[in-house]
Structure prediction request, 208 residues.
Amino acid sequence: MERTTVALRAQDPISQAGVASQLRARPEVSVMEWDDDDVSPQVVVLVVDAVDEDALKTLRRIQRTTDCRTVLVTTDIDEQKLVSAAECGVAGVVRRSESTPEHLVHVIGTVARGEGHLPSDLLGRLLEEVGRLQGQVLGPRGLHFTGLAAREVDVLRLVAEGYDTADIATKLAYSERTIKNVLHSVMTRLQLRNRSHAVAYAMRQGLI
Prediction:
């Protein structure tokens, strides 16, 4: 069995020792020291009481300085804190009340394979929060989670329908130069090769 290398960080020494003891007893994982410069862990497990600013600073530091995947073990988390944690690169979340050795090792393995894990109730609330942010915060500003503005989506949708630049300009009441600039901006920002590639991207994002 190939063991997943894990580094552990907790906000207090009792939690650090307790979780380390649980993980060291499991054959699926290998607990290593955080400061080992020769080998980087596959997964970092961060144990906190709450997702406060200190916890987010630690998560940002992990995201900025390593290529590790992160599992967050926390006592208290809601959908807004979950969004903040996700922005800091968290790939798995486990409540302390559910963090048996078996479950924690399962989540570590899931995250190490490039997948994600959330408690089922948090997943539903996260989807609701994403919808709320899109509808109440991003949408009114002409923005989308995909990184495309509303005008950019409109242009790509018409490109996909076979309209040329002049037709799109007429339909959207813009100049042809504006349409060309919109397409150039999208392709440059998202590193897309041509109009077909841009349309394919929009289709994958569910915009078309």
